[in-house]
Amino acid sequence: GHGERKAALEMINRHSPGSTRRLTLGADKGYDSADFVAALRRMVVTPHVAQKARHSAIDGRTTQHPGYALSQRCRKKIEEPLGWAKTVGGMAQTLHRGLDRVRARFTMTMAACNLARLPKLLPT
After folding, report:
1. In a shared domain, residues 57 and 19
2. Which of 15, 27, 29, 95 has its CA 20 to 30 A from that of 70?
3. Residue 15 has what pLDDT?
4. Segment (H or E) for 76
5. How far apart are CA 106 and CA 95, in angstroms?
């Protein structure tokens, strides 16, 4: 739906209300809509949104920029551990109530994710 896009625009407004300094926003394909991209451009925010295969609102002036490719690589580094936490770590739906318990579970899950990644990072 539109709720996440609306929340993203509100967060940008809270972060830098009325800013004229160019910001970038990285997001997944769910944010690739003409109205969201246009709103970002009006707010002087460069949309580094992953492109949909068809009918993308992200045009060549953004995707040809070297910063766009860098942003997509950084986004992948962030998304992969969170995806692991949801699928393997059981964080798709929390088993606990209360912020402290959920936070502790998330911390343990991400520590397990790091331990699972460790053999790939070590030299052989």
Report:
1. yes
2. 15
3. 79
4. helix 66-87
5. 11
For 68, the domain range is: 3-78
Dump pLDDT digits (tens) for 69-94: 888 888 888 889 999 999 999 998 88
Distances (CA, A) of 124 to 112, 115, 117: 21, 16, 14
Domain identity same for 13 and 61: yes
In this prediction, what percent of the chain has a pLDDT beyond 90?
A: 23
Structural domain contains residue 83? no
pLDDT surpasses 70 at 1: no
Domain count, the chain: 2
Give the predicted TM-score (pTM) of the model: 0.67
What are the φ/ψ torsions at residue 52 (nearest 5 degrees)?
-75, 155
What the block records as the tokens of 117 is: 């990644």
Same domain, 62 and 108: no
CA distance 31 to 1: 10
